[in-house]
Amino acid sequence: MLRQPQKELPSITFGATLRASTEHDQAHRAEFGYLNYVQGRVGCSAWAAGVVDINQWLQVAWGGQKRKVTSIATQGRADADQWVKEYVVKYTLDGETWYLADNGRVFQGNADRNTVKLQPLQNPVLARSVRICPVTWNGHISMRCEVYYEEEEETPAKAAQEKTCKTSFS
């Protein structure tokens, strides 16, 4: 079977949900942790952890759907000198067992508030959820992020195959 060209898509932009290990308070919720978020009437301009230690994470989940994760983009907190300098990426297929992406590689994060730092995975992973786990940070653990994934292009052969499968089991 020929592999079709892939299109990289932004997870959060297309409805993935954000969760976090902890939140500083209601004004620093995980839902504020998406790329390029700028403070609205309520909240700060990023997710900020409630506890400052290496056990924190910001999670992107696709509601049970699997995605081939290809890269991670991060930013610091827009309204304060707080950002994640280094992080590891964990992923899961079942929500229980978590694996380190790229053999535990420590990804380089940010060095300021607003520059977007894009980090491709050397080995893309199939996952239902991904966690960005800060290792080092400036000031406080705060970040905005996006997780990119590939989606296969629809082809006539693929559509015919799916139709055949559906017909076979009807």
Question: CA-to-CA gap between the ends?
Answer: 25 Å
Task: Please give the number of β-strands.
Answer: 11
Q: How would you sum up the global shape?
A: globular
CATH topology: Jelly Rolls
Give me the strand/helix succession.
Answer: EEEEEEEEEEEH
| Main sheet makeup | 6 strands, antiparallel
CATH top level class name:
Mainly Beta
What oligomeric state is this? single chain
Q: Can you tell me the residue ranges where pLDDT is under 50 for at least 5 consecutive residues? A: 1-5, 157-170
Give the proportion of residues in helices.
under 10%
| CATH architectural grouping | Sandwich
Strand content: 35-45%
Number of helices: 1
Question: Mean pLDDT, as a whole number?
Answer: 86
Number of domains: 1
The CATH H-level superfamily is Galactose-binding domain-like
Query: Pairing-aware structural class of the strands and helices?
Result: mainly beta
Q: Whole-number radius of gyration?
A: 18 Å
